[in-house]
Amino acid sequence: MDISIWFFISSGLFLGWSLGANHAVNVFGTAVVSKMVRFRTAAIIAGIFVILGSFISGSGTTKTLTELGGINAIAGSFTVALAVAISITVMTKAQLPVSTSQAVIGGIIGWNIFTGSPTDYNSLSKIILSWIISPVLAGLFGFILYKIVKRYLKIWKIHLLEIDSYTRIGLIIIGALASYSLGANNIANVMGMFASAPLFNEINISGLFSISGVQQLYLLGGLAIAIGIITYGRNVMETVGKDLYKISPITGLIVVTAEFLVLTLFTSTELESLLLKLNLPTIPLVPLSTTQAFIGAILGVGLAKDPLSINFRVFGKISLGWIIAPLSAGIITFILLFFVQNVFEQKVINPVPYEISKSVVQKLKEKNIDTSNLTDLIGKRFYNKKIFRQELLSKSKFDNDQIFAIFQYAIVDSFRVDSVAAKNVLSTNQFSSSQINHLKTFHGISYSHKHDLESDLFSDSSLWEITGNKIADKSILEKKLLIENLFRIKEKNNSSIK
Amino acid sequence: MSIFLKKTKKLEIQIDEYLDLVIKGGLIFKLGIKCYLENQHEAFENYLKELRDIEEKADDLRRNIEVKLYTRTLIPESRGDVLGLMESCDKVLNITTETLLEFSVEIPILFPQLKSDFLDIAESSIACLENTVSGIRSYFKNIDAVRDYVTKVQFYRKETNKIAEKIKRTIFRTEYELSQKIHTRYFTFHIERIAEQSEDVCDRLSIAIIKRFE
To answer: Counting Cβ atoms within 10 Å, is residue A137 exposed (0-12), middle (13-18) or buried (19+)?
Structure first.
């Protein structure tokens, strides 16, 4: 293994550490601040469950963040992770809870701007909207839960000491669960950027089970988050717990329960699948942030209890942090990328070829994009995003969405349909024989654009129909992805390209 | 989890036992006063001994509860209030014991015409104590009921003051020696203190329930 890889990974580990330091408050903050759980106990439980979450469920996480930009060079990943970590550390020093995804998004956009990659404003606006929805939903849940708990505590007449015990147990259980999901959901932010680098070999433990390279990487990331929680988690806890709103044990439990419920109900694909299987209506999935949900829940409970008890100045400071975090991460990324590329002469982006083919023009026409001035570019390859963008803009005044669409369609990929691979691999993956036979008819044909492959291979709508049934549609989409990955060739061999 | 709750249950029982002792102390005080007024000195001394034992037991139990609350960092939000309530409740029991002890030591001459008034003042001040204990019990389990007990304590405290005033007015309008008059006033004042201290506990209780409602 190249030793420099460890150097690059170090920024990911730093990011993990800063995430742990900043996010400890979201899982055990209320328990510690209300003196129900000692910080040491909380840090140990959170650390263990974060590592378990990262290791067990982390590999399956695919984030909306990847839609925003594809950082494809390890030096680029290093720089973005470092910039994000610096930004979060500064926020942690200022005792402000910020969302990692916010800072990561800032970093990715910084990378996009530096490399000339287009940003998908559609995805970005969805994510920004989630920053508003998260606190509102969690606040609403917190408000309602508080009212319910207050009412039933009076009716049930539970002894104060028993309430204390139940609250303590609840805080530990919810804290552990939240720590697990913190690890599972955020490890992709921390280590996902390095997942493509071949860092670790698979470990096979006496034939019983094996640990993949990515799992080892995520385990390392989980460890970094856990160390962040243990070494520096207390600071942010104190701001939220003491300054924003005085948290009592029960309100502390309500806050984390509201946060956990909102995150589980509105982001869990597992829950959605379960509801679908039971023929129950599903809850619309929205990307939500833990930090914002947590602050929202505190505000909701505070409003239910006594609006005057909330320190709105501190809340304003926290909200300002939510704007500063992505902005600063973006700016730091841009500056660092400049140095990494020009001073340290590291490749921060791997060139990806773009080419406007006739099929691309056709696709763009379908999207109502004016292609009349693009005919000169047909067949021309661009290896630099900035030059390609400039070339496009010199031809016509495309807006950002149109530029993004052109980039999406023009990216040169490489596929070759292989009937043997189709037969061997796909037959074991619940593909119907007619689907496999249909794929076989394209044997030997190569494609340089993904949409060309899709329009050929998935042309028979009876085989690949999207019906509106969520389970069936999800399965079809997974199958399509599997086929694309199966036929994708790493070494680009463009002979007989269609 | 059950071990966790088992310990909690044990502590709950201890708190209840402590409050039972306070109630018992109040009842013994009443019986003691009655015996004193009826010149049953032996029975009176027995009750005094019993009351002192109860006070000692209650002290030990309270300390034990306090240590558990602190070492196990239980009810961190309400711990201060609970300990304050228990300590001030203990003070009522102490006053009760001290008063009975003073009867034993100083052997005041209580005039026959004041016998029923002394029984009434003892009854009324112990009613304060009993309702205070009920209020504390409700603080743990049924917070809505606390207010009723606080109101009752305030009522009985006023009644106690009225009876005390009546005794003092009566005694100072007689031809007895001044020293006797002052001695009687002194004992009236002591019994009255039980009600006063009970009301202090209730004042704490009123603040504590506001916090628990939060």
So the answer is: buried
- ipTM at complex level: 0.88
Range with lowest mean pLDDT among A260-264, A490-494, B187-191: A490-494
Q: Does A32 touch chain B (CB under 8 A)?
A: no
Q: Do A160 and B142 touch (CB under 8 A)?
A: no
**What per-residue confidence (pLDDT) applies to A197?**
62
For residue B85, give how far its alpha carbon lies from the nearest alpha carbon of chain A (Å).
14
pTM of the full predicted structure? 0.79
Residue spans of the domains in chain B: they are 2-213
A472 touches chain B (CB under 8 A): no
Assess whether A419 and A405 both reside in one domain.
Answer: no
Q: Would you state the CATH architecture of domain B2-213?
A: Up-down Bundle (1.20)
CB contact under 8 A, B214 and A35: no
Total domain count, chain A: 3
Do A182 and A318 share a structural domain?
Answer: yes
Q: Do B77 and A305 touch (CB under 8 A)?
A: no
Angle between helix axes A160-191 and A213-238 (nearest 10 degrees) is: 130
Looking at residue B35, what is its pLDDT?
Answer: 96
Residue of chain B minimizing CA distance to A147: B214
Say whether A165 and B5 touch across the interface (CB within 8 A). yes
List the domain range (segments joined by +) for residue A372.
354-410
Does A242 reside within a domain?
A: yes
pLDDT in tens, A437-463: 787 788 888 888 888 888 887 777 777
| Cβ distance of A160 and B140 shorter than 8 Å | yes
Residue window 64-93, chain B: list those with CB within 8 Å of chain A: 73-78, 82
Buried-exposed string B47-81: b where 16+ CB fall within 10 A, e elsewhere: bbebbbebbeebeebbeebeebbeeeebbebbbeb
User: Which tens digits make up the pLDDT trace of A240-298?
Assistant: 666 666 778 888 899 999 988 888 887 777 777 788 888 777 777 666 778 888 889 98
User: CB-based contact (8 Å) between A308 and chain B?
Assistant: no
Mutation target to probe the A interface, by most A beta carbons within 10 A, among B7, B141, B209, B210 is B141
